[in-house]
Write a structure and sequence with these properties.
alpha+beta; rbstp2171; three-stranded antiparallel beta sheet; 41% helix; globular
Length: 137
C-alpha cells in the first residue's frame, strides 16, 4: 500500500459514457463522453461570471457568460479511435457554438453528470459506498 497521496493520484475517478449517439450530427456514429477533472470545471466556473464596472455609475454590473460548447469540446471523443473530436479547442468551440442549443446542452449535462458536478458532496459519498478501489467507471 502506497502513501495516501499516491493512492489518490492513482485513483481512476473520472467517469466515462460509451456508445453515445448524436444522430443530429452523425447518424450511426458512436461517441465516448468523459467527465472532466476538477481543474477544467474550476476554469469553466471562473469564466462563467465576470465583473465589469461601468464608468460614471455607482455599483457594478454582473455579466454572466456560459460557454457550454467549451466543456463539450473537451469531453467528446471518437469512440473508435479514442481521439478528441476537437483537438483544437478554439475550433471545437466555434463549431459547437453554431449547433443546436438543445443538443449541446444535453451533452453538457451528461459531462456535468459524469464529472460529478451535479451532486453535492454527501451524495457523492453515498454513490462511492462499496467502491473501495476508487474506480467509478
Amino acid at each position: 500500500m502506497g502513501s495516501l497521496k499516491d493512492l489518490i493520484r492513482a485513483a481512476n475517478d473520472i467517469k466515462v459514457e460509451e456508445d453515445v449517439e448524436i444522430p443530429e450530427w452523425v447518424p450511426g456514429a458512436k461517441f465516448l463522453v468523459k467527465g472532466l477533472p476538477s481543474g477544467d470545471w474550476e476554469g469553466y466556473q471562473n469564466k462563467l461570471s465576470t465583473m465589469r464596472f461601468e464608468t460614471g455609475k455607482t455599483g457594478a454590473a454582473m455579466t454572466l457568460k456560459s460557454n457550454k460548447a467549451e466543456i463539450v469540446a473537451k469531453a467528446l471523443f471518437d469512440q473508435d479511435s479514442g481521439e478528441l473530436v476537437f483537438p483544437d479547442l478554439r475550433e471545437g468551440i466555434a463549431i459547437l457554438s453554431e449547433k443546436s442549443g438543445g443538443t449541446v446542452n444535453g451533452l453538457f449535462n451528461l459531462v456535468r453528470h459524469l464529472s460529478g458536478n451535479d451532486r453535492d458532496f454527501q451524495q457523492k459519498l453515498k454513490d462511492a459506498e462499496g467502491n473501495s478501489d476508487g474506480d467509478q467507471n
